[in-house]
């Protein structure tokens, strides 16, 4: 393939199948720690994390969690523009934490017992999408 000077851009994809399903803040932190750069691809630069979203009135709220920050907020609804209340955000994040803990337990059992992964992509999912969203995982399993 020929590359035209000044017209084409060469890039390196540092993501693997497992990283693509990680929440953006975790993926960016890993690239910063292991490769010493902060990814600025369209997905990582977006205001909301497409792996962490909750259904709303016909749209969805995406989670906004800057790299290195503990503070988490929800982006306004993609359909009606309504902001999520603090109480609603807390409920969703508690649900996300509970599901994440359960998935970690399940993955530990699978790994400990060396059970085959027969469905979906087979990758352990480090953090699930928020409660109510099943379309966020590229494997379609969850």
Explain what this protein looks like in three dimensions.
The chain is of the alpha+beta class and 142 residues long. It has helices at 17-20, 24-35, 42-45, 86-113; strands spanning 49-55, 60-64, 73-74. It has a 3-stranded antiparallel beta sheet with strand order 1-2-3, with helices on one face. A hairpin with an 8-residue loop joins strand 2 and strand 3. Mean pLDDT is 75; it is low at 125-142.
List keywords for this structure.
142 residues, alpha+beta, three-stranded antiparallel β-sheet
Topology:
Elements: H1 17-20, H2 24-35, H3 42-45, E1 49-55, E2 60-64, E3 73-74, H4 86-113
Antiparallel strand pairs: 1-2, 2-3
| Largest sheet strand order | 1-2-3
Instruction: Give unreliable regions as ranges.
Output: 125-142
What is the helix fraction of residues, given as a range?
A: 25-40%
Mean pLDDT metric: 75
End-to-end Cα distance, whole Å, is: 38 Å
Structural class: alpha+beta
Q: Beta fraction of the residues?
A: 5-15%
Shape: extended
Describe the main β-sheet briefly: 3 strands, antiparallel
């Amino acid at each position: 393939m020929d590359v035209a000077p000044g017209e084409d851009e060469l890039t390196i994809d540092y993501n693997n199948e497992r990283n693509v399903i990680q929440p953006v803040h975790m993926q960016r932190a890993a690239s910063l720690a292991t490769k010493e750069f902060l990814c600025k691809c369209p997905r990582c630069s977006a205001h909301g994390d497409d792996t962490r979203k909750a259904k709303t009135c016909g749209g969805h709220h995406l989670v906004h969690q800057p790299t290195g920050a503990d503070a988490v907020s929800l982006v306004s609804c993609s359909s009606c523009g309504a902001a999520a209340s603090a109480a609603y955000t807390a409920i969703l994040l508690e649900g996300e934490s509970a599901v994440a803990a359960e998935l970690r337990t399940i993955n530990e059992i699978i790994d400990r017992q060396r059970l085959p992964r027969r469905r979906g992509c087979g990758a352990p999912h480090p953090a699930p999408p928020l409660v109510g969203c099943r379309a966020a995982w590229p494997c379609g399993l969850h």
